[in-house]
Amino acid sequence: MRKIKVLNKNLSNMIAAGEVVERPASVVKELVENSLDSGADNIVVEVRNGGKTYIRVTDNGCGMTKEDARTAFLRHATSKITCEADLFNISTMGFRGEALAAISAVSKVELMTAVSLDYYGTDIIVEGGEEISCKELGLPEGTTIIVRDLFYNTPARMNFLKKDATENANIVSLVNKFAIGYPNVSFKLIVDNKVTLATDKSLELIETIYSVFGKEISDNLIKAERLEQDVCVSGYVGVPRCSRSNRNFQLFYVNNRIVKSKTLTAALDRAYHNLLMNGKYAVSILFISLAYDKVDVNVHPTKNEVKFSDEKKIFDAVYYAVRNAVDSEPQLKRNVLEFLEKSDKVPVKEFDSESKQQNMPFENIRFTDLKSESKSNPDNAQNDENKDIPVVTVSPFNSINTNRYVNTTLRDSGYFVRETKLDPDELSEKFSLENTDDSYILKPEIPYRYIGEVFKTYIIIESGSSFYLVDKHAAHERILFNKIYDMYKNSEKYSQQLIAGIPVTLSPEEADVARQNKEKLEKLGYEFDAFGDYDVILRTIPYVISPGDTVAAFMEMIDILSENKNLDMTEFENATLKMLSCRAAVKAGFDSSDDELESFIEKLLLEGNVNYCPHGRPIICEYTKESVEKAFKRIL
């Protein structure tokens, strides 16, 4: 064994640099944090060649005296910690004393600083951890630090850096986060002599977000706020349709510090439960404020991660702040009902006796006058009191059910036979989109007019000064999902017994997944027995699955489990129920009668959630009369 010895100053500084200085962006982070701690409200960052050859950070903060400037390059030197208790009550951004020492150990650093009361400022040059020069200069109040030739004396570290474009992107992303986190500070970022970001400290937060992320995101943000005991959550979250394919637009600030936290991420994901498509992530800019001694920021060398003393309290505060914000997004139904409150109510016409005697499955539902043509009711043709009230005849949407999509070959083969306790009519009623009870009357009357359907996919309705396109598959999927979800959570009978089992051949990997997750699969409606090494026999299937989708849906469940080895039951339930409702929903391109579609729109508006399907795709898109008239040059 080699003799133990104390490392020299230069080597120990290089080791410290390895923890703090991972890449050029790490240097920028440390320097900007120090600028913020100095009270600066104007910060300029300039980089060249991905920050490898040149990084400059200039601020108008309080500056340093000559003595403090020289001491700042020593290891464990800081003005922000004076005693042990301060370690657990940190209110500053940059507090690690070895930051400047670590940076200067692997680069050539020049520091120029001045305080307001000093006649001269200080200019210090440090290379490889050694002070080269220190002189007095006439300088404005504030600090400028220039870092040249990063890792010039550690070429092995240089080899791990990415291309200039990649390193530049990391720096841009970092400064963007600082700019949003500190809207009261003006930031300017210059990359290779080109200004890529410039914010104004006089702007509101949402305006700063616009400057950084652009119009598409800033226009689709909802304000989120919540005070949970001693935890305050504020900021903005994106509407589901504004989701992204990565988490780059999820920003969390704990006491204004940019952080990563599994607790915060989990709370955000849970708040968007059933609202986003698979592989999509919500946009968020959230600020969490709490007592400094309730959060530990000293759990990672780069201070990117934090630990909370009460994780559940933080989770709940973020979850409810976000969920309440998302739930408050204006919906078509709400807009319609607000319009209705200002309109006269029109009584609903009950079934006439002749219709009831003939068992005609329709209702006469009245709508407020939209001053446009609509179907008339012959019964009221001679009634002066009602002649101006348009009447729409609608029928239940029961014809849109799983029987329409039955694979007749599989059905006739005898594999698919429902239990005698649940016949096809009962199945249709369970998952139809209409309440077949005669007492079902739409109240209050909703002022809209059904227009028709285009491309056998999008339903057109008119309301007020807008018209709306409704994706019938997405809408049907949402309604089915709500029904399935409620049934499942209420522990109602969820599966249907097969008289003759369905054999399914699996790969060795799939068979292993099926065996290991048998309980999960059974809970969601698929009971099966092993048959040989890699075959299974399906004994029950979920109610909502049509025969043609039986095996495909089972295999998709296996795929979900295969791709996510550590998927918990809640996540698996969510993914599976989305998949089942999608498979059972009416497909785009299928013929639907006007009566079916009109009834479907009624049900959708009464459902209470008309914005997004379970995967997060929009259900309804609005187009205003003004936008149409602009397109036809009627108005400019």
Can you put this structure into words, describing what you see?
The chain is an alpha+beta fold and 636 residues long. The chain folds into 3 domains: 9-198, 2-Layer Sandwich (Heat Shock Protein 90); 214-327, Ribosomal Protein S5, domain 2, CATH 3.30.230; 331-636, no CATH class. The protein has 21 helices and 24 strands. It has an 8-stranded mixed β-sheet with strand order 5-4-3-6-2-1-7-8. Strand 3 (108-114) and strand 4 form a beta hairpin. The chain is globular.
Summarize this structure as a short list of keywords or feature phrases.
single chain, Ribosomal Protein S5, domain 2, Heat Shock Protein 90, 5-stranded mixed beta sheet, 3 domains, 21 helices, alpha+beta, 24 strands, 8-stranded mixed beta sheet, 636 residues
What's the arrangement of secondary structure elements?
Layout: H1 9-20, H2 24-37, E1 42-48, E2 54-59, H3 66-71, H4 98-105, E3 108-114, E4 121-127, E5 130-137, E6 142-148, H5 155-158, H6 164-181, E7 186-191, E8 194-198, H7 205-213, H8 215-218, E9 221-228, E10 231-238, E11 250-254, E12 257-259, H9 262-271, E13 284-289, E14 295-296, E15 307-308, H10 311-327, H11 332-341, H12 353-357, E16 363-366, E17 391-394, H13 408-412, H14 424-431, E18 449-454, E19 458-463, E20 466-471, H15 472-489, E21 495-505, H16 508-516, H17 518-523, E22 527-531, E23 535-542, H18 550-563, H19 569-584, H20 594-607, E24 620-624, H21 625-631
Parallel strand pairs: 1-7, 11-13
Antiparallel strand pairs: 1-2, 2-6, 3-4, 3-6, 4-5, 7-8, 9-10, 10-13, 11-12, 14-15, 16-17, 18-19, 19-20, 20-24, 21-23, 22-23
Helix pairs in contact: 1-4, 2-6, 9-10, 15-19, 15-20, 16-18, 18-19
